[in-house]
Amino acid sequence: MPSNETLRQMHYQMVRIRLFEETIQQAYFEGKTPAFDIAAGPVPGEMHLAAGQEPVAAGVCAHLRPTDAVTATHRPHHVALAHGMDMKKLAAEIFGKETGLCHGKGGHMHLFDPETNFGCSGIIAEGMPTAVGHALAYRKLGRDDIAVSFFGEGAANQGAFHESLNLAAIWKLGVVFVCEDNAWAISVPKEKATAVPSNADRAAAYGIPGVRVADNDPVAIYEAAGEAVERARRGGGPSLLEVRTDRLLGHFEGDPQVYRSKEELALLKERDALRAFERRLIDTGVFTSAEAEDAWKRARAEVDEAIEFARSSPYPEPASALQHVFA
Amino acid sequence: MAVETKRLLTTSKAISEAIAQEMERDPRVFVMGEDVGVYGGIFGATEGLLAKFGPERVMDTPISETGFIGAAVGAAISGMRPIAELMFVDFFGVCMDQIYNHMAKIHYESGGNVKVPVVVTTAIGGGYSDGAQHSQTLYGMFAHLPGMKIVVPSSPYDAKGLMISAIRDDNPVLYMFHKGIMGLGWMTPNPRATAPVPEEPYTVPIGKADVKREGRDLTIVTVSLMVHRALDAADELARDGIEAEVLDLRSLVPLDREAIVESVRKTHRLLVVDEDYHSFGMSGEVITTAIEGAFDHLDAPPVRVTYPDVPIPYSRPLEQFCLPNRDKIAAAARQLMG
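^ inputs. structure came back:
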């Protein structure tokens, strides 16, 4: 069981992620109405938000240190922030600014942060082999750092998923594979796409531990991840963790979500894991409702500062597009 | 300039020696790939390394190219300098996402924050009836995609120096060795695949073409095994008083455009020989470079001898019909001389 201090930190982490993404969502639709134009407004391009999946990032990353590597997906903000990426640099990158993490060259799906050893990929499952390589390097360098690879349940049917698990298993590398099962690969539900109900069962094919966390609860995730992280760090090899989580929003902003009913979406909103977690912490006396309120206020200020930084930063010099092809 | 030596090595031994010397110099360098260990690489590029450095630094991988090339990318980002072998370039289809969407792009996407010093070695080329999936060169396709240096050596000396440069480079390098230049005992003997190679480490710069034969009458631009064919053709042409200059590009990215332009300004005639497919490839790029930089110096339209736009056939007469060779090059040169 995490300490009260850890519980409060995980709560704050989830709150700041939620507020950050809600603010990004508002900015995203600026200039895109009444007719939706994906290229218009201060935040152009695709936008994949993670509302509902914050428990996975908060519960897993609570065990990590900045020297651990983390790889994530096209939906990376919650993981990036939970692993310690500078919120201002992240916001500025999303706004395409010179002060952004990647000086505007990456965008929200391609974030690379040497300070927190974070990387992500817009190609499903293809961030996973990189995580295997990070862990391989750490062993060769004699470091007890580990690599954590986040991916969706849709990725578990890609070859890169299976190749990565096999490689990590035969080389006994310190990798924790974390499957965020939000039940939907854009519009295709897991039961139509995946031959087994739980991807955790697939761990058996590689002789490694596989655990499914059946509810989107930060504490259950924290505990399952703790075991896997500890095993990886002490040289016990990789693990696979699958968490049943919720994608409260569309696959991308502007997704009409014709594949989900209004009732289903309402149900998801009702069982919002962040609100449930907060109620539980108040009910069990971890903090008071006033302290919870204060967390939201602090997060609001942090997010506002980051977004203001992004908005007020300059765009990169256009011709800088020609730089950084080679080191 | 070449260091003087009398020691003869095959290209494959020159490559494995380069890797061994860099592994001795830099503990971050390691090798991974299919059959690179006890077998020594199917084309001998890693021969002897396992015995010298052990299985932690010379890692046989499963047949899992996406997995291990992706792992090389991750290891490079985390401070290692991996060499990953893709057994045949034709196998790129099962791992192109790691090569192109990851290895080649991450430095740029990161705005320069992250370096990816990976060397991917791969065997290219045909001529021995291995069919459509084991005979391609494909360097033009990779050279089209920004973010990777593309090295295509032709001689044992260059192969060693370019390998050392590739390992020391902070960028991803695709190092493409033609099976026909390796000097393997089980391939058609190629006298040009064995040549003097200094024992001590040295570098050959990536991005610098090399005049393999000087001439005044026409410029033949090519790479890899076709350098050998062009030199053979040049010897034949010389008997008729035609002096061909043979320019070995040695790398396609960066492309030494100045060397192409300079040679064409001297000879006023350009012939490009390319074992890669005819259209949208190296031959077109070289000719465009000459036209952009030396149009007024050209006495005749450039000519090219290339592989036709067909998948590579199996049967010997079919494949040999398609491949550029000494006679085709000599005939094209005579036509160009008018």
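Chain A touches chain B at residues 69, 71, 100-106, 110, 112-114, 117, 119, 121-123, 126, 128-138, 140-141, 147, 159-160, 163-164, 166-167, 170, 323-327 (CB under 8 Å). Chain A is about 40% helix and 10% strand.
thumbs up if we can close this ticket
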